[in-house]
Each structure stands twice: as C-alpha cells, then as structure tokens.
Amino acid sequence: MSKLKTYYKNAREEIGKVIFPIKEQIRSAYISVFVVVTVISLFLALIDAVMSFSLSSVIN
C-alpha cells in the first residue's frame, strides 16, 4: 500500500510540472498545420496534373 501512495504522490507532482498549451497556442498551431498541408496538397495536385497532361500527350 505504501508503494501505491508513493506512486500516486509522484504522479501528482509530475502532473503539476506539465505546462498545458493555451487556446491561442492551439489555434495558431492548428492554422499553421492547415496552411502547410493545403500548400503541399496543391503542389502535389499541380505536379500530378502536369505529369498526367504530359503523359497523355505522349500516348496520344
């Protein structure tokens, strides 16, 4: 039982050291990820379209 109390006490101390992000930090991280994913997706779509067009023109 003593080990369980010690474990619980240590766990509470460690949780007290954790710094949780605030809403503004979460929002800015979300926007950053959304922008990066969107830009990369558009870039890959452009490359796909160019390669598809060039391959179809070579085949035809």
Structural class: mainly alpha
Helix content: over 70%
Helix/strand order: HH
C-alpha Rg, in Å? 25 Å
Largest sheet: none
On the 0-100 scale, what is the average pLDDT? 95
Low-pLDDT residue spans: none
Total strand count, please? 0
Give the termini distance in whole angstroms.
79 Å
Backbone shape: elongated
| Strand residue percentage | under 5%
Keywords:
60 residues; mainly alpha; 88% helix; single chain
Written overview of the protein:
- With 60 residues, the protein is mostly helical.
- It has a domain at 20-60.
- The protein is 88% helix and 0% strand.
- It has 2 helices and no strands.
- It has helices spanning 2-17, 23-59.
- The radius of gyration is 25 Å and the shape is elongated.
- The termini are far apart.
- The mean pLDDT is 95.
Give a topology summary.
Elements: H1 2-17, H2 23-59
Quick structural summary:
This is Protein translocase subunit SecE. The chain is an all-alpha fold and 60 residues long. It has helices at 2-17, 23-59.
